Amino acid sequence: MAHAHTVSAAPRKGFWAVLKDWLTTVDHKKIAILYLLGGTIFFAVGGIEALLIRYQLMFPEFDAIPAQTFNELITMHGTTMIFFVAMPLVFAFMNAVLPLQIGARDVAFPFVNALGFWLFFLGGLLLNISWLFQSVPDAGWTAYVPLSGPDYGSFGVNFYVMGLQISGIGSLIGAINFIVTVVTMRAPGMTFMRMPLFVWTSFITSALILFAFPAITVGLVLLMFDRLFGANFFDVTQGGNVVLWQHLFWIFGHPEVYILILPAFGIISEVVSTFSSKRLFGYSSMVFATVLIGFLGFMVWAHHMFTTGMGGIANALFAVATMLIAIPTGIKVFNWIFTLWGGKIRFTAANLFAAGFIPTFVMGGVTGVMLAVAPANFQFHDSYFVVAHFHYVIVGGIVMALFAGCFYWWPKMFGRLLDEKLGKWTFWTFYPGFHLTFFIQHFLGLQGMPRRVFTYLDGQGWNTGNLVSTIGSFLMAVGVIIFLVNVFKTAAKPAGAPQDPWDGRTLEWTIPSPVPEYNFKQLPVVRGLDAWWVEKSEGRKEMTPAEPLGPIHMPSPTILPLLMSIALFIAAFGFMYANQPFDNGFIRFLFEKYVIAIAGLVMFFGCMIARSLKDDPGYHIHPEELEGEGVHQ
Predict the structure, then answer these.
(1) Whole-number Å distance between alpha carbons of 631 and 633
(2) I want to staple 444 with a disulfide (CB 3.0 to 4.6 A). Which of 253, 376, 465, 510 is the partner?
């Protein structure tokens, strides 16, 4: 018998009901899809910016794009890709998969999870609408002062400062949520050393966010006070210090690289293990290597600052720490190779991307060790060699892993298998396109081509390299377009993916695809590493339940996370435009007297109070509803 609160199947809902469902959801699986959608939108924006950059550099003395617009493009491309593409796409998989892999019904704080997404999305929106206001950040994605300060930075830098502040809060609370989820919500028998490696990498990533993000938050607050309230933290003439910004930025900025790459390592570990039909080689060494990378990640930030004049001792210490971090990373690479070695390898689209990831990431790591040598760094610094290095790590590492994750977990998220043939076409256009774009940039850097130049003279030996690089970038774009075609083609098919299409090893493959809203009818008992594989190898068709079938408590949907994020968005506008000369007296009054800013903050804290005072008991799904198949999907 259906109860009043039963969630009906999606096709029966009207447009507004569906919209309300997505705007108010606190279901981690739907939030994962929202992260995926948001990240993809920003990926399209950042990708177009990248293509425009490469188009301008295609020929010497080319004047397709003005110098000022070029500065805006490189600033927006870098900021968008790091903060609003890589981060949310990583969070998408953490949301979709982590609770399932530890045998949990939800994350620890569903409300906070929704708030984290909306803060990220509104922060990204705030940054990108700077194009509409024709006030685009132009100080580079690292926003070094004084280029981003009140004297030299354009008004657009305010969009950078406020957009990153808002989205940063979302990332921070999301990380706290994942840490608490892993510590407190593992299924019976799921000890720490039985957790899948993706859970471990997500767990360490969340810890990194917890310690790294406060540094950038402090830096952005100081920069905001300099820009909006006339402070002088970075004003050298008033006793400020410009190198302070670099320290604050990179204390966050280098762990940020590991925040992005560690979940990618987790995805690769899951994919390689599944498609080799083998347990991951050296599981415990992989866990300790992950922890060590997280620990060492905080000891290397000043290798970005070798040329600031810190002195020989500081340079030597940070150089050695940077070289040390290659050791745990190397352990991972060898373990992936040994996992593939002797395995029954299936080259699905997911495994092609995983296999392609390994040598590509090694190349990125090798050039990282080269950059760790301080005297060599003096030559490489601010050249295209550095651009090539970090794209090998970020694109060759993270984006390749994200593609692998998409093909691997798509049936679990959407109930449909992506087309394998189109998937292989995606790989064979994106992968060569990537290497074509960035491999040659190492040589452009060694030949002296500086970063962030919008044009270059003929006859310097850079013409061929830049032309090849641009051709490669368009080939990458073809790969992304083929992937999007695949997504739309797959979405048109009825959902009917099998529960375990890849002969998987972990708990997410023990439940239907797509996953019901309650995840597990009964929480499973975990009896070893690769819990599902353990049961299958003993001939069982499903997990042993840890509890009898009973009512399942679910959290209620709520619009408050969206309203709170909109409130901060409004407050940010109020502060940014407080000192701008408006012709209309009433509008000038609203901004000058901080009426808009205060209204946004009042709305934000009002939502917090409403959330605190209203007791939301949620609702229950009863056992008889669980038997009605498909009701909650």
Answers:
(1) 6
(2) 465
Closest CA to 124 of 32, 58, 42, 220: 42
Q: How many CB atoms lie within 10 A of CB 242?
A: 16
CA distance 279 to 301: 35
Q: Residue 554 pairs with which residues in a beta bridge?
A: 619
Dihedral sign, CA of 28, 29, 33, 36? positive
**Torsions phi, psi for 554 (to 5 deg):** -130, 145
Q: Supply angle C-alpha 240, 242, 243, rounded to 5.
A: 120
Q: What residue has token string 């979405």?
A: 491
pTM of the model: 0.94
3-state secondary structure of 468: helix
Concatenated DSSP letters of 203-259: HHHHHHHHHHHHHHHHHHHHHHHHHHH---TT-GGGT--HHHHHHHHHHHHHHHHHH
**Cα(first)–Cα(last) distance of the chain, in Å?**
17
In terms of C-beta density within 10 A (0-12 exposed, 13-18 middle, 19 or more buried), how is residue 61 classed? Answer: exposed
Q: Give the whole-angstrom CA distance, residue 618 versus residue 556.
A: 5
pLDDT tens per residue across span 204-221: 999 999 999 999 999 999
Query: What was the pLDDT predicted at 5?
Result: 45
Q: Cβ–Cβ contacts within 10 Å for residue 471, how many?
A: 14
Please enumerate in sequence order all residues whose Cβ is within 8 A of that of 77, keeping only pairs 6 or more positions apart, or say none: 46, 49, 50, 53, 141
Take residue 617 and report the two structure tokens written for it.
């008991």
> Cα separation of 28 and 169, whole Å?
18
Give me the torsion for CA of 552, 558, 564, 569, rounded to 10°.
110
Asked if the bond preceding 432 is cis, omega within 30° of 0, the reply is no
Distance CA 107, CA 32 (A): 12
Q: CB 197: neighbour CB atoms within 10 A?
A: 25
Neighbour-count burial of 237, counting CB atoms closer than 10 A to its CB (0-12 exposed, 13-18 middle, 19+ buried): exposed
**Phi/psi zone of residue 514: left (φ > 0), alpha (ψ -120 to 50 degrees), beta?**
beta
